[in-house]
C-alpha cells in the first residue's frame, strides 16, 4: 500500500459520515471531505439494500406492469385504464415536471377507485401500499371533526412537508375526500402549484390521488341514459363524462371536499377520472376472480356457472325496473363469495 492509499485509509478510519474530519495536516481538508462523502455514499449503498430508501431499488416505476394490471384486474372502466397509465408515465419519466400530478377518481361505491390506487402503489413502489413513500389518508378517520380544522391544517402541512422532504416522489392517497371538512383541502394548494420549490423542497415530483363518491349519481344517470338509448358502454367518451362531473361540481351543495376547494378554482387537478357503475357482466368477473383468489377453485375455467349465479343472487341491483347496475359494485363480492361457499 503506497503512502497516498495509507493516508486515505487513515482518514477514512478517523472520519464519521456526516461529521467534518479534523486532521492536523495542513491542506488535507479537501481529501477528508472527499473521504467523508465516500463514506456516506458507501453507507447508503449498503443501508438501502436492506432498508427502504428513496431510490430506484425501492421506487420501481413499472409502467408496463401498471398497464398490464389495469387491463387484467380492472373491469368495466375503459375511461380509466389508458388515462391513468398515460398521466403517471408522463409524470414519473419527466425529469423536471411542471407541478405535482393530481388525479381525482369519481364514481359510485365498489367501481374500482381504491383498487386502482392500490395497483398504482404496487407498480410504482416495491412495497406497494406498505411503502414508507406512500401515505394513505382515510379522511373520516384522520379528520372527523369540522370544528378542529385549524389543527388538522397544521397536521396536514407537517405530514406532507415531512414526507416529500424525505422522498420527492411520494404518493398521497386521500380516501373519501368528499367528506373532508370545508377549507381543509385548501391547505395543500401550495404543494400542488407550479412552484419550483417551497422552503427549499421541490414538491413537483409528488403524486396526489383523490378518491370520491362525489359525482357518482350523475355518472350513473348518464351511463343509464346511454344504455337506454342503445349506446354501447365502450362508446362513452371521457370528455362527455367530464362535462357531467363539472356540472355536478357547480350544483353541489357540499361546502367540504374537493368541489369547493381552491384546487378546483385554480385548476390544479390534472385529471378527473369517472368510474362507471358496474353491470352484471363485470360483477360476474369479480366473483370468478374471488373464487380463485380464495382458492375455492384452481382456475377460472373450472368454476361452475351455477355458483356464480348463486353469489349474484346475494347482491342487489338497480334501478328497480332495469336491475342493470350493482348497488355496491364489486365491493361486497368477497363476503358474498364466503357466504355462498362456506355455508
TrEMBL record:
**Annotated family:** Belongs to the ClpA/ClpB family. Torsin subfamily.
Per UniProt, residues of the Torsin-1A C-terminal domain are 278-338
* GO molecular function terms noted in the UniProt entry: ATP binding; ATP hydrolysis activity
Official protein name in the record: Torsin-1A C-terminal domain-containing protein
For this UniProt entry, what's an example GO CC term? endomembrane system
- Does this UniProt record's set of keywords contain Methyltransferase? no
> Span of the secretion signal?
1-21
Which Pfam family would be a valid example here? Torsin
- Coiled-coil stretches: none
Q: Which InterPro entries match?
A: ClpA/B (IPR001270), P-loop_NTPase (IPR027417), TOR1A_C (IPR049337), Torsin (IPR010448)
Instruction: Write out the entry's keywords from A to Z.
Output: Signal
Please give the superkingdom of this protein's source: Eukaryota
Q: Which PANTHER family match?
A: LD13476P-RELATED, TORSIN
